[in-house]
Design a protein that fits this description.
Length: 94
């Protein structure tokens, strides 16, 4: 099975936590859990505005942060996904 988001929604999956910083410092479990990171696994086509489709600006594979209480959790084939609207995404990790 596969999730296909509608309109300006995106499907996210919790990304693996970085256990070390770029400089080699090991992060404690408390620091790593402060704000979970998510990976974009599917993107909707966008929404209609002024007679044209406004596409979603996110791309599959990007890592993002979302608000603490954003989205809806869905479990499919034993994997937990989150479905959020594009405007619930706070930042893209570059």
């Amino acid at each position: 099975m596969k999730l296909r988001p509608l309109f300006n929604r995106v499907v996210l999956k919790k990304a693996e936590k970085e256990q070390t910083t770029k400089s080699g410092l090991i992060l404690s479990a408390n620091v790593a859990d402060d704000m979970p990171c998510y990976e974009v696994v599917a993107v909707g086509p966008g929404i209609m505005q002024d007679g044209a489709v406004q596409p979603v600006s996110l791309k599959v594979g990007e890592k993002v942060y979302i608000g603490k209480y954003s989205g809806n959790a869905v479990k499919l084939d034993g994997v937990e996904y989150f479905i959020v609207e594009e405007n619930d995404v706070l930042a893209v990790i570059e």
